[in-house]
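Recap from last week: sequence in, structure out.
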Amino acid sequence: MPNITFKNLNGQGITMAAVINFPPGFDEGKKYPAVVVSHPGGGVKEQTAGLYARKLAETGLITIAFDRSYQGESTGEPRQLENPYISTEDVSAVIDYLTTLAYVDQNRIGAMGICAGAGYSANAAINDRRIKALGTVSAVNIGQMFRNGWENTVKDADAVGLVEFGSNARTTDARNQGNQDETMPLAPLREEDAPNAELRGAWEYYHTPRCQHPNAPGFTLARCLTQIITYDAYHKAEAFLTQPVLSIAGSKAGSKWMSDDLIARAASKDKKMYVVEGADHMDLYDGMKFVDEAVSQLAPFFQAKLK
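Predicted structure tokens:
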């Protein structure tokens, strides 16, 4: 599992940090299918993305888990920026790198992600035809989540206050010259901030020994709301998301509606929704029996669609 860095070619001057995983018996003289694995909002490659990447590599795939621009060990200022358009382009930047590796078959590249990383992977698949298959786990379309709420109970127009909040944060940041940028949580920062048991699991995941990591503080910049609120990770999926799609979600996940929406909107004739019974959103991050069940679906999916 070599730690690697490479230049992001999207024009932001970023150096990406990633971990690449090789299958058992890896032979550099052969060509392999590869899968790009994108982490959740507020996460890093060492957490659930790395877990899925390692498990998928064990099934014969090259996998790469990476830190998005401005996050983790990847470079870029200001830190913790969560601009969804940049995050989508990051997936393609990783594919740019993979196409330079002689042992990666550039005609057999897939993408998957967890939570917001799943939404970014879907958006990348819509935009980038080099992605031949898409897998998602506990998918979150980050624009929908912030506009419509965790369980889709808020109307779009009622989120206009968040756009105003983000706009004002940009003014504050400009006046402070970036020294004390305004922040907002991507998951509850304190246990008492969690509105329900499922999102208490998000607090536990990011802020206790369960899976906390020093590079994953769990917040982003408030200024990002000016991009997030109007972003749709599934924009034009009805026309351009024609690749095979496998979407995995827990039966108890408040976020499941965003996986359902992806499957409903995708133009693909080869699309499937797989429901993990008894799992909520966070269970699919690191609950091993649930992760193993998800991998039992993802591995044959990618093996079949990237052959």
